[in-house]
Design brief:
Elements: E1 2-5, H1 10-21, E2 27-30, H2 43-48, E3 56-59, E4 62-65, H3 67-77, H4 88-104, H5 111-117, H6 121-143, H7 155-169, H8 178-187, H9 191-195
Parallel strand pairs: 1-2
Antiparallel strand pairs: 1-3, 3-4
Cofactor: glutathione
GO biological process, one term: glutathione metabolic process
Pathway: Amino-acid degradation; L-phenylalanine degradation; acetoacetate and fumarate from L-phenylalanine: step 5/6
């Protein structure tokens, strides 16, 4: 497999965690979203992913984009350890939380959106994350065990950790979200989350390395 990734991309990070958890080795091709006006806009990369976004994963003779689609494919082809619970209700809760972050928070504070916001980008990002986290905190109070849904790591957790990192980067005050904070702390102790961290990628700038 070949993963096209950017060290700071939260969507790429989700996929790196999934690959690490499932023990799938891969080659990483960095795509710098800032340099050269954004390497994702090159003709070469557009041919690979017409949406001109990371991540993209070449695996089993196909090219997949969209992090949750990639994770679902990995789940179906490498079922252990599972990232979707067997219980239909818990599985629905995992998908709900993953979608809440991947559709309802992250795209609103994405690089492409922030570029449009000009001087207001910090305030915009903070507002988007805060409103999303207010809802997420309430949801997690009903679903969480050690992690987002019960005591097993799931696709929801793969979305949570990168989104908390975004919140910290945009200086969102985290004290109103004790459940989110607790789960994030527990997840960051796991090896798969450590090795996939933005501070430990081949394309991480020297000043941001762990």
């Amino acid at each position: 497999p070949i993963l096209y990734s950017y060290f700071r991309s939260s969507c790429s990070w989700r996929v790196r965690i999934a690959l690490a958890l499932k023990g799938i080795s891969y080659d990483l091709v960095p795509v710098n979203l800032i340099k050269d006006g954004g390497q994702q806009f090159s003709a070469e990369f557009k041919a690979l992913n017409p949406m001109q976004q990371v991540p993209a994963l070449q695996i089993d003779g196909i090219t997949l984009s969209q992090s949750l689609a990639i994770i679902n494919y990995l789940e179906e082809t490498h079922p252990n350890p599972r990232l979707l619970p067997q219980d239909p209700k818990k599985r629905a809760q995992v998908r709900m939380i993953a979608d809440h972050i991947a559709s309802g928070i992250q795209p609103l504070q994405n690089l492409s959106v922030l570029k449009q916001m000009g001087e207001n980008k910090m305030e915009w990002a903070q507002n988007c994350i805060t409103s999303g986290f207010q809802a997420l905190e309430q949801i997690l109070q009903h679903t969480a065990g050690r992690y987002c849904v019960g005591d097993e790591v799931s696709m929801a957790d793969l979305c949570l950790v990168p989104q908390v990192a975004n919140a910290e980067r945009f200086k969102v005050e985290m004290s109103p979200y004790p459940t989110i904070t607790r789960i994030n702390k527990a997840l960051l102790e796991l090896e798969a989350f450590k090795i996939s961290h933005p501070s430990r990628q081949p394309d991480t700038p020297a000043e941001l390395r762990a």
